[in-house]
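Quick start: read one record
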Amino acid sequence: MASVDGGDSSVPSAATRFHVAPSLDRPTVDRWREFADHVPWAHYRQDPAWAEIERRDHAGATRRPCFFWAERDGSVCLTALGLRRSLPVPGRAFWEFEKGPTFHDVEALDEWLPWLLARLGGEAACLRMAPPVPLPEAGDDVETVLERHGLTRRRMLGGWATLVADLSRDEDQILRTFRSATQRSIKKSLRLGIEVSVQDSPPGWAALSALETELARWAPVSRVQPVEVERISRLWLRDGSGGTIMVARHQGEPLAAALVIKHGHTAHLPMIPSSRHHRELPASHLLVWEAMRWAKLHGCTAFDFAGYSLVAQPGDALWGINQFKRGFVTADAVHRCVAIHERVRSPLLAVSARAIRDAQARLHRHSASRAEGRADR
């Protein structure tokens, strides 16, 4: 593979030119965002600012973000933020385009994929894409293009659906659409004196980090350090313009926290960890409701719960999360998008590399837990 570290690289193809670079200058960032404003399914994880936020993976290793884009007749027609994770095998890497690439018409994707695959060459032991195109719109055509270029649909990954609540109605109308049990939990939280506040500050970062770390002990989520939350705040939240952090407390003790990401007119909820020590206090229900109210107040018309597993079974950790989210939206609010697709050059290599990477992640978590234990003593 030709290195992306040397700056911008472009290749002409008829009227379309393809580019890749390790960073973007301000005019190019502005062009990316102007293009994304006209793509209905553009996602915040494909915004250039998110590259700095996601520069480390769950094992603590550095991930290199690379910026890919295509221009047709001088206008941007596709953008893609690709994350490259080195594998413990020389000359091989795991490439991931989470919630991407971004494009308005399928033809741009069809033109770009052969160029991308030729450029990555044999380095990409695994190439994963998840364009968030809704299935009822152009989804079927997109999946056909992905499969024609050798990417396989990964149904069992289950991360290609989400729940979206409509915030365009009055607050009373929104509240009445919740399940009865969810409404009762919100009222119970208020009676018990649980308080929810906006806290995009060091105490809020620490609370979100601690609760997410606790959640990682039993659910498939990654630990997040306060310094990482601070980076999200500085690079994205920006004093509320791009979202916020909210914390639910009872008698001063943090019971649950939420990271709210604002992108366009949609609010996303990628993190909502809660403590298991006070299960009798339904703080998370009140927290979500207050997050929805905050989003509505700040101009959002939709609230994306950031994931709904289509393969979770009763007893799975994700099953309980599904049921919690379903308390706020009806069944018809499940939005299905293009499924996650992968292109694996060597299945044996990919499986072996994943096993080594998972072992490294477990070692990293074990080391972190031991460090926490020593700090407590």
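The first strand starts at residue 9 and ends at 13.
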